[in-house]
Design brief:
Number of helices: 12
Shape: globular
Number of strands: 5
Strand order of the largest sheet: 4-3-1-2-5
Distance between the termini: 42 Å
């Protein structure tokens, strides 16, 4: 029955996608274009301009945004269309997110930096060179322990959260609901991404579970969160002690990425992570440094 159901849903979605694509020939002409890069961030930031190409449900994108918000470094975001990826057509070989375009440092042009660990490293180097953040604060933020937890978050927690929030088509559809709020997406972009994107995520769920030998996705997430709270945060306010470090920011990014979903609500209810998450939200103040979202 599940195989038959998925086949029926797939056929219906493909038919819907075809109709939406046809309508999109006209609708795309009405969609607002991505605006030119603002100079507002460069005027007030010692690290130069930062434009982040992202998906709003990407844990790695949310990690970078949380780091920038925490350190009050101005940035702009551009939501990438997951189906067409037209916003990153300039990037011929690297077709993933996040991608950061960094410019304005000592009059230099924009430089493309791919992948969240390298983006984080580059931004932290700029913060150090420009003295935008004190050297002792940076040393604490990117300590050896913080780097280990950031890697754990990227390679373990982020992997476990995907099958947790895509158990059903309804949950996948909910996760992709963020596209309805993207300013420069046309209505066809929004509808096609929510339907087709949700279906693709749902279909990938089983493959991810098999690849990473995940039996019970809900239990696996609970165990990972318990490990983070016990071994990472411990009795302190944050894994970084009194102040968050990169590991805190990475784990926060994973959870922030799904905060509109029922999965997020269940995790908050089923684990002891909520107090830490609320402390992180108070420190990060999500979006406080974002000067523009497209």
């Amino acid at each position: 029955l599940p195989v038959m159901l998925r086949s029926m849903v797939r056929s219906r979605i493909l038919a819907t996608a075809g109709g939406l694509a046809t309508a999109g020939v006209i609708d795309s002409m009405l969609a607002p274009p991505v605006a030119p890069f603002s100079t507002a961030a460069a005027a007030v930031s010692a690290v130069g301009t930062v434009r982040l190409f992202q998906y709003d449900i990407c844990p790695f994108c949310n990690k970078i945004k949380a780091m920038l918000d925490l350190h009050k470094i101005p940035y702009e975001t551009v939501d990438v269309n997951p189906l067409t990826k037209k916003e990153i057509k300039f990037s011929k070989e690297y077709r993933k997110v996040p991608i950061a375009m960094l410019g304005g440092l000592e009059g230099s042009g924009a430089v493309q930096v791919n992948d969240s660990p390298l983006i984080a490293d580059t931004l932290l180097e700029r913060m150090e060179l420009s003295k935008a953040v004190r050297s002792d604060e940076l040393a604490h933020f990117r300590s050896a322990t913080s780097l280990e937890w950031a890697e754990w978050s990227d390679k373990k927690l982020a992997v476990l959260l995907f099958p947790r929030m895509t158990r059903t088509f309804a949950e996948s559809f909910q996760a992709f609901g963020y596209v309805m709020q993207v300013p420069h997406f046309s209505m066809v972009d929004k509808l096609s991404n929510q339907v087709v994107g949700a279906f693709a995520m749902w279909m990938a769920q089983g493959k991810i579970k098999k690849k990473y030998a995940i039996d019970d996705e809900a239990a696996a997430v609970r165990e990972a969160i318990a490990h983070w709270l016990k071994e990472g945060v411990g009795e302190a306010s944050f894994a970084g002690g009194q102040k968050p470090h990169l590991g805190d920011v990475a784990v926060y990014g994973c959870l922030k990425a799904i905060d509109r979903t029922s999965t997020f609500s269940e995790i908050m209810a089923e684990t002891g992570v909520k107090p830490w998450y609320e402390r992180m939200t108070a420190e990060v103040q999500p979006g406080n440094a974002c000067t523009s979202r497209q």
